[in-house]
Amino acid sequence: MIYLQLYLRFFMTGLFAVGGGLATIPFLQEMAETTGWFTAAELADMIAVSECTPGAMGVNMATYVGYTTAGVLGDIIATMGLITPSIIIILIVAKILDKFRTNKYVQWAFYGLRAASVALISVATLAVAEMALLKGDISALAGGAGAGSSIAGIFGLLDFKCIFLAVLIFMGMRKFKKIHPSVFIGISALAGIIFSLGGV
Amino acid sequence: MKELIKLYLVFFRIGITTFGGGYALLPILQRELVEQRGWATDEELMDYFAIGQCTPGIISVNTATFIGYQRAGATGGILATLGFVTPSLIVITIIAALIQNFADYRIVQNAFAGIRAGVCAISLHAIIKLWKNAVVDKTTLLIFMTVMVLSFVLSVSPVFMVMGAGIFGIIINFIRAKKIKGGND
Questions:
Q1: Residues B87, A55: contact at Cβ < 8 Å?
Q2: ipTM field
């Protein structure tokens, strides 16, 4: 029963993703690996689309994954799964609001949670980077013979055009902090088309 | 009833004008709720946002539920949240369907190769900002490193790591609190 599975998977994501939309990415990556519903490359595209379309990024990602996995009904169910824990928890917490916020155990837990969340997002981003900035599969390298050839192999794998674009975009974001990320995504798409990135 | 429909519509508007989520939501909430409707003050809004941050789940969804609850009880919370996610459901469904049909075109593949590189840069930029709030001392640095290694090398499920980090946070602070107390005796 794909719909029930989708609902439960996104319920877990909604329950354990702490923070903004980026925090859902590690959970979606695990979902891609364990269920095979979508590929890691598709996930990278979903992140991009979710970032530059209206709506909260986390909600957009859930809708997108749900649609890819099981069509329109799938996207509604995935999104409902994602928001159910929020609704339940907030409705409970709202009654004991002030006690909850100033509760030292809550604060202590979030002291640990935030650091873990950033680490998870970082690892998820590394996986996206592998997809975006390398030409092939890095695990193919492990099969290669000798240390000398593997260093040459690493250089052969790097997609310099894409790396150069990523560095430029990063510098642009640092410099022009007021410009919205979706503008940078638009620029990236244009650069991709103009310089035929991705070796296609 | 009128109040509930209004909540739904207001959050529909907020949903369609939000890009990205999380902190991107704050200025929009400020305009829609504080300036235009007087539903909350700036201070209250910051409090709502803080609640959204210190509860499990996505900040923007939590904040929507909470404001809806404040206005019109549990039903209000549910309707505000549904209003907030409706634009995503509509827009993403259309885009996903279009992309599936055009995915084989060379120009679309080139565009996405560029977009993925851009997403790396944008994520790195966001991580640096998050890092400043989350990794504040040696202990949180240790948590960060441990979770990185467990996740990268051993592929431990994020669910366990989030739970583990929360429990570890409570234990380490409990020990600290005890030490301070013991030192005063």
A1: yes
A2: 0.83
